């Protein structure tokens, strides 16, 4: 399966798109970006130079993924989520440093969430819509609010399995267990 690039999208020479990846209306992928197989980049998505995106990733409309952000396989990024890459932004500063951000396998980021650079969102974590993430999020952790605070723990399918400060011994929900997970 070959990739699909909508006629209004811009994929610069030197950008790498994996097989089966779809780039929709008015998206822009810069040279030096690497996107895995079977990804979906929605309308008006911007992927900066040097960004690495794994396979099976869905990035919904109006998301900008700036240099310094690395997104692993099977991640979902909801509409209008925001990634930053500069901890001390000034319009007049020519001397700034990219602060890396990592989104690990299977994590989900809700619509309109803001991810402040320098954090790691670990495997299968769930960031609620509108959350402002200023600290790293543990594997399977559910966070919400401004600033984002832990609310509980989720199964790999994103169903809440506990509303406790510490992760439960078993992070598999009843529905997944019924399916043999």
TrEMBL record:
Keywords: Repeat, Transferase. Pfam families: Hexapep_2. One of its GO terms (molecular function) is transferase activity. InterPro entries: Hexapep, Hexapep_transf_CS, Trans_hexapeptide_repeat, Trimer_LpxA-like_sf. Signal peptide: none annotated. PROSITE patterns: HEXAPEP_TRANSFERASES (PS00101). Coiled coil: none annotated. CDD domains: LbH_WxcM_N_like. PANTHER family: ACETYLTRANSFERASE, ACYL-[ACYL-CARRIER-PROTEIN]--UDP-N-ACETYLGLUCOSAMINE O-ACYLTRANSFERASE. This is Acetyltransferase-like isoleucine patch superfamily enzyme.
